[in-house]
Design goal:
Strand content: 35-45%
Distance between the termini: 29 Å
Largest sheet: 2 strands, antiparallel
Shape: flat
Length: about 80
Amino acid sequence: PFLVASSVHLICAQRLVRRICSECAEPHPQPITALVQAGFTQDEAGSVKAMRGTGCERCNQTGYKGRVGLYEVMEISE
């Protein structure tokens, strides 16, 4: 007969993204203006090294091998 009030304190979101195959990865230059628009600072955009997979036997010609999780945790407050 006890009523327990529960509340949510955290929310966690997860997304799985594909990994670029390490065997066939090659540099894929991006314009600095595009990187700045994506959220990088001007200094960070100059040092970003974008890569892409060209496809090989290891990744079955997809350019991707495996996945990695991206997590976001948000605290709930008043």
